[in-house]
Amino acid sequence: MGNANQPQEKMGFWQRLRRPSARYSVLAIVSTFFVLGILFWGGFNTAMEATNTLEFCIGCHEMRDTVYQEYKKTIHYANRTGVRAICSDCHVPKDWTHKLIRKIQASGEVWGKITGTIDTPEKFEAKRLTLAEHEWARMKASDSRECRNCHTFEGMSFDAQKDRSKKQHEIGKKTNKTCIDCHKGIAHQKPKGMKGDEDDDV
C-alpha cells in the first residue's frame, strides 16, 4: 500500500517545485538565493584569504621550524626597501581560478600534516628534494607566474646589475628561460642531491 502511494508523493513533490509558490513571490525567492549566494561567496573568499597569511602558513611547526627560518635570512624577508614577499606571494597564484586549483592541491599537504610524513626535521630533510622538485615543476609550468608578479625582464635595469647577473638575465631573456630555471635556492636551502644547479642563483 505504501509502495503504491510513493510515486504519487514523488510526483506531487516535483509538481510543487515547478509550480509558482502561492505564499512567496518569485522576486522574494530569487532575492533570498541572491543574498545567500553573496554570503556563501564572501565566506568562502574570506576563508581562502585567511589561509594565505604568513601566520597561517607557519602555524604548523613543520614550516615554522624549517623553511620559515631559512626564509627569514633572505632578501625576500628583510631588505633596505621594506618590501616583503610572504609564502603565498610565491606559492599561491593571484588569479582566482589558479588560486582555487592550488588550494585543492594543498589538500595533499594537509594529509601529510595529519599522517606526520614530515613532522620532524629528519623526516623533512629526507623529503626536501621531492617536495622542492614538485614546487619547481609547478613554477616552471606556469612560467614562474608568481615571481613575475614582482619581477619582469622588462622592468629590469641590466646596467645596474653585477656583470654575472646581467649576462645571465640577458641570456635568459633571449632563450625564454623562466625564473625558477636559475633561482632554485632564492628563499630556501637547496636540497641535498639535486642536480644541474651550477648556474643557479645569479
Explain the layout of strands and helices:
Blueprint: H1 2-18, H2 26-50, H3 54-57, H4 61-64, H5 67-71, H6 87-91, H7 96-105, H8 107-115, H9 121-141, H10 163-174, H11 179-182
Short note summarizing the structure:
The protein has 202 residues and is an all-alpha fold. The chain has helices at 2-18, 26-50, 54-57, 61-64, 67-71, 87-91, 96-105, 107-115, 121-141, 163-174, 179-182.
How would you explain this protein's 3D organization?
It is a single chain. With 202 residues, this protein is an all-alpha fold. The chain has one domain (60-202). The protein contains 11 helices and no strands. It has helices at residues 2-18, 26-50, 54-57, 61-64, 67-71, 87-91, 96-105, 107-115, 121-141, 163-174, 179-182. It is extended and about 80 Å long. The mean pLDDT is 85.
Notable characteristics:
202 residues; mainly alpha; 11 helices; 57% helix; 0% strand; extended
Distance between the termini: 81 Å
β-strand percent reads under 5%
What low-confidence regions span 5 or more consecutive residues with pLDDT below 50?
Answer: none
Note the main sheet: none
**Average pLDDT number:** 85
Q: Can you count the beta strands?
A: 0
**N-to-C series of helices and strands:** HHHHHHHHHHH
| Number of structurally distinct domains | 1
* Number of helices in the DSSP assignment: 11
What is the overall silhouette? extended
- As a whole number of angstroms, the C-alpha radius of gyration is 25 Å
Which secondary-structure class do the elements indicate? mainly alpha
